[in-house]
Write a structure and sequence with these properties.
- By secondary structure, the protein is α+β, with helices and mostly antiparallel strands.
- It has one domain.
- The protein has helices at 71-86, 91-104, 109-122, 124-128, and strands at 6-9, 19-21, 29-31, 35-39, 43-47, 52-53.
- α1 (71-86) packs antiparallel against α2 (91-104).
- The longest helix has 16 residues, at 71-86.
- The termini are far apart.
Length: 129
């Protein structure tokens, strides 16, 4: 599969993300540098350095199935959290982008579908807040 979503960390040659871990509770990751995101259908936005997010908000009971720091979900989770934080587009579009990026990053179909379904069912409160 050809990658359609390009996510570049400023100052880094290869695709990927750069974050650092914060030891302050639920929101425990922060983008270390600016990230430029380009996707299909002329989607383009920038996630600034210093954006705090929690990677994948997976309940403890489900972490045996999908680790919240699985490399195949990290890019998708960062972008998804940014879209929710900024209310860019609709909630459905944000959730669908989450699914697309997980597919590109090699998350198995069943795991990405379960993660997508979880944000569809449980993300309403986060979108409204």
């Amino acid at each position: 599969m050809q990658q359609q979503w390009q996510i570049r960390a400023e100052g880094v040659q290869q695709p990927g993300i750069l974050v650092r871990v914060l030891n302050n509770g639920a929101e425990n990751f922060v983008t270390h540098v600016r990230h430029e995101v380009r996707g299909p259908r002329d989607r383009h936005f920038v996630i600034p350095a210093g954006f705090r997010f929690d990677f994948a908000s997976i309940p403890a009971a489900g972490r045996w199935f999908i680790s919240r720091t699985d490399a195949r979900i990290t890019r998708a989770a960062m972008v998804h959290d940014w879209l929710y934080d900024r209310r860019l587009g609709s909630r459905k579009v944000a959730d669908d982008i989450f699914l697309e990026i997980m597919a590109e990053d090699g998350m198995p179909v069943i795991k990405r579908r379960v993660a997508w379904l979880a944000v569809r069912l449980g993300g309403g409160r986060a979108w409204r807040n």
